[in-house]
Amino acid sequence: MKLLLSFTASAAFHVATGSASSIHRRDPYEIFRFPGRILPQFGGNDANQQIGSTGVNIPLEVWRIGATDLQWAGEITVGTPPQKFKVIFDTGSPYLLLPRNNCTTCGSQHNLFNPSASTTFSPSPGLPLQLEFGSAGGGTVPTNSSQRVNCIAATDTVSISSPPLEAFNQQFLVCDYYSSGLATQPADGIFGLGSLPTGLWPDKSRKTTVEFETAYWNWINSSASGDLSPEFGMFLGSPNPQLTLGGSDTNLYRTSTLRSRTIFLDVQLSTMRSSWVSGLRSVKVNNQLLLSSNESSPVFDDVALLDTGSAIILTPDFTTAANIYNILSPQIGPLDDLGSWGGPCSVLDNIAETAIISFTVGTKEKAVEVDLVKGAFNLGVFDEVARPGICQAVFVNPTEPAREPVRGRLAWVLGTPVLKGYYTVWDGKQMEVGFGELKTQEGNGGYEKGKGWGKRHGKGKGWGKWRGRGVWGL
Ligand SMILES: *[C@@H]1O[C@H](CO)[C@@H](O)[C@H](O)[C@H]1NC(C)=O
Ligand SMILES: *[C@@H]1O[C@H](CO)[C@@H](O)[C@H](O)[C@H]1NC(C)=O
Ligand SMILES: *[C@@H]1O[C@H](CO)[C@@H](O)[C@H](O)[C@H]1NC(C)=O
Ligand SMILES: *[C@@H]1O[C@H](CO)[C@@H](O)[C@H](O)[C@H]1NC(C)=O
User: Fold this and answer.
1) Are 310 and 69 in contact (CB under 8 A)?
2) For residue 176, how far is its CA from the centre of ligand 2 (angstroms)?
3) Which of 168, 199, 228, 370 is least crowded, fewest Cβ atoms below 10 Å from its Cβ?
4) How far is the CA of 203 from the centre of ligand 3 (A)?
5) Where is average pLDDT lowest: 63-67, 110-114, 221-225, 404-408?
6) How far apart are CA 72 and CA 157, in angstroms?
7) C-alpha 132 to ligand 1 mean position (Å)
8) What is the pLDDT, as a whole number, of residue 251?
């Protein structure tokens, strides 16, 4: 889920965020990557590592409405004795957040964390944090209000899998307010898999920020065996989606394809907000080149946030969405003034089956082409009551152009309609992401030919209006 800039802390916090972090601060235009670098652990294809046995596999559950996959969640435990929670593994945000047992707005179907039932709980550091998410991660239809949580940073043991990886003294957020989009989704909380080993809490009273180690890195660094790689692998296809912590599951992808399909992140943008951001050179729609970067510029003209918490593709602006849909069909148009597009379901089904839409992502040093998963173009019926037979298409635009904060380049969000077609490997140490070819094509799932499309969402299920505010939520 894309975290919006607007923490309720003052704007000064964001400046502090940028400067307080000591990690990977580099000159924005420095060419810091060089091809041919030896990456010993990446992708589990090092000669010293046993194929298929690296990392800890975590089964994921998919939340699907109709034929559209919205979110992937897995189970963690927190506290002593352990309390169980389902959390969305989200590369678009850096925090672990859970609902607290005194929350009345967090959704009655959810497990709520009870601090007083845990002997290892500590209320420190006790910093209050209000977050705003600008994502359609819990849905696909943008709404005119964003999703919010009110939380306090506290400490406890956070564990996953059996035998467990344990993160002792882990700081995370316990929340006593969820807005409706978070309250109604099946998962209890969000597990941010942002790109950095550390996160920052704002300490408003002292006008500073407090650094903490993220739960993922705490697991990796303190794993008893000590042999976990600083990376995780994700398979979001069917039938058994899976997250692998500290390695990748080489049973699921062709290892030989990973290294040649690995891109470097834009280090400055990725570290600024602990996201996975790379350049975007071009988008091809049925072999028509829609946009392509100026080859004499040192970086690609656009950037893309790679977000496992978004079930859509967010274009940087209205015009870009319009240009894409113009190539595809005159019968597709805006469905609202909040960024949704669509048209007759039969038209969208046909495009979903036949169109080839691809994105060239990466940096000048290395870029790869990734395709929109077959079938993912059609998100399903938009509003059964008011507009029967009208389906929503996968590209959504923000209400104001989204730009990254360093050079003002237009910013996209590439969500799971692209990511689930690959075995993705995310390495926050080398700052790179690989797109391995799946061994089966089942990753191109979600779309069952001949079965048509069910109703994907009711009105109001969307997750927050895409408010560009002229600045991307980095
Ligand atoms: C925002 O949502 C409310 C409640 O659904 C609605 O009354 C209002 O017209 C909406 N505003 C816009 C700009 O869409
Ligand atoms: C929940 O409990 C915490 C800790 O006692 C408190 O700070 C917070 O205000 C409570 N929230 C609600 C909604 O009662
Ligand atoms: C955990 O490992 C990462 C990557 O090697 C490193 O950057 C970080 O400093 C480590 N954290 C701690 C607390 O050792
Ligand atoms: C391409 O980039 C170069 C170098 O940044 C710049 O001088 C030139 O004006 C750009 N050309 C276009 C068409 O934007």
Assistant:
1) no
2) 6
3) 168
4) 23
5) 221-225
6) 23
7) 19
8) 92
* Cα dihedral 242, 244, 249, 254 sign: positive
**pLDDT in the model for residue 225:** 61
Ligand closest to the CA atom of residue 298? 4
Query: Which residue among 292, 293, 294, 301 is best mutated to probe the pocket of ligand 4, counting the most ligand atoms within 8 A of its Cβ?
Result: 294
> Coil, strand, or helix at residue 380?
strand
Judge whether residue 464 has pLDDT over 70. Answer: no
**Does ligand 2 lie within 6 Å of residue 176's CB atom?**
yes
Task: State the Rg of the chain over Cα.
Answer: 21
Closest ligand 3 atom to residue 23 Cα is: 7
Name the residue at shortest CA distance from atom 13 of ligand 3: 213
Atom 7 in ligand 3: which residue has the minimum CA distance?
Answer: 197
Atom of ligand 4 at shortest range from CA of 294: 1
Which ranges of 146-214 would DSSP assign to H, the alpha helix? 180-184
Kindly state the tokens that stand for 13.
């916090």
Average pLDDT, integer, range 135-160: 82
Q: Name, of 137-151, 225-239, 378-392, the range with top average pLDDT.
A: 378-392
Structure tokens at 334: 């805006």
Instruction: Name which residue sits closest to atom 10 of ligand 3, judged by CA.
Output: 221
Tell which residue, 316, 372, 317, 310, has the closest CA to residue 139: 310
Residue 212 has pLDDT above 70, yes or no: yes
Minimum CA distance residue for ligand 2 atom 9: 176
pLDDT higher than threshold 50 for residue 209? yes
Interval 159-195: pLDDT, tens: 999 888 999 999 999 999 998 888 988 999 999 999 9
Per the CB < 8 A criterion, the answer to whether 454 and 380 are in contact is: yes
Q: Which of 295-304, 327-336, 437-446 has the lowest mean pLDDT?
A: 437-446
Q: Where are the alpha helices (H) located in 201-272, listed in sequence order?
A: 215-222, 255-258, 267-272
CA of 25 to the centre of ligand 4 (A): 27
Contact between 88 and 178 (Cβ < 8 Å): no
Strands (E), 204-356: 208-213, 231-235, 242-245, 262-264, 277-285, 288-292, 302-306, 313-314, 333-334, 341-344
Query: 329, exposed or middle or buried, with CB in 10 Å at 0-12, 13-18, 19+?
Result: middle
Residue range 213-235: mean pLDDT, rounded: 86
Q: Cβ neighbours of residue 36 under 8 Å, at least 6 residues apart?
A: none
Find the ligand nearest to 296 CA: 4
Omega of the bond leading into 239 within 30 degrees of 0 (cis): yes
Q: Is the peptide bond before 163 cis (omega within 30 degrees of 0)?
A: yes
